[in-house]
Amino acid sequence: LREGRSPRRVMKVLSVAVLRYTRDTAEPVMLSTAQDLSSFGFFEKRGVREMLTFFAKTVIQRIKAGQRMTVEMEDMKEYQVHAFVRSDGLAATVTADTEYPTRVAFALLTQLLDDFAAKVEGWATLETAEGFNIEAVLLKAQDPANFDKITKIQQDLDDTTQVLHQTIDKLLERGEKLDNLVERSDDLSKQSKLFYKQARKTNSCCLIS
To answer: I want to staple 22 with a disulfide (CB 3.0 to 4.6 A). Which of 63, 89, 107, 153 is the partner?
Structure first.
């Protein structure tokens, strides 16, 4: 490194997920997901994995079709959930640190959903999508330059200017409490619910609000 120049911060994408939600199911259906939990300890990984799935479903269930939204986790400001729901109900999220460029996140999500819809026939009725290589998407997403090139070529300003920013608490419907949703969730094991409670107290989890 040259003198006086600080090393470039390595951005981190924790999770990429594809879901479907056309309001004909009680909650969004997780079709495909990949996660990079290498920065977490062995005993943390299960809790983090389940919380990532929980937050992806929670966010997708509460934004409108055709909407793009970046959701902040108020008490854990290191990470955000970027979410996009197409008008046909196909949806995706990417959970990344706050250094990850918003325009890149939504370029990633747009391309991911286009590729998924083209390669996975009958996704609207599936419970899970076999054969789609979402792990490759997660790996590629770790370098924002891979998708930043797309945004520069497209010059699509709408993708950035029409992104809504919200906190998880404000996204919840009136009367809803995140603690209650966690307690009722079937996606979370007893261990993960305990992990959530402990992380909320210590403010040490990846994306706890």
So the answer is: 89
Which residue is associated with the tokens 């992104």?
163
Q: Give residue 13's identity as a one-letter amino acid code.
A: V
**Straight-line distance from the first to the last Cα atom of the chain, in angstroms, rounded to the nearest whole number:** 37
Is the CB of residue 89 less than 8 Å from the CB of residue 124?
A: yes
Strand partners, 34: 16
Q: Give the DSSP per-residue string, 138-180.
A: HHHHTSTHHHHHHHHHHT-THHHHT-EEEEHHHHSPTT--HHH
> Are 142 and 11 a contacting pair, CB within 8 Å?
yes
At 66, which amino acid appears? Answer: G
Model-level pTM? Answer: 0.77
Please report, rounded to a whole number, the percentage of residues in the chain having pLDDT higher than 90: 39
CB pairs under 8 A, 24+ apart, for 193-199? 195/44, 195/46, 195/47, 195/48, 195/51, 196/47, 196/51, 199/47
* pLDDT tens digit sequence for 94-115: 999 988 988 889 989 999 999 9
Q: HSE (CB half, 13 Å, CA atoms) of 181?
A: 21
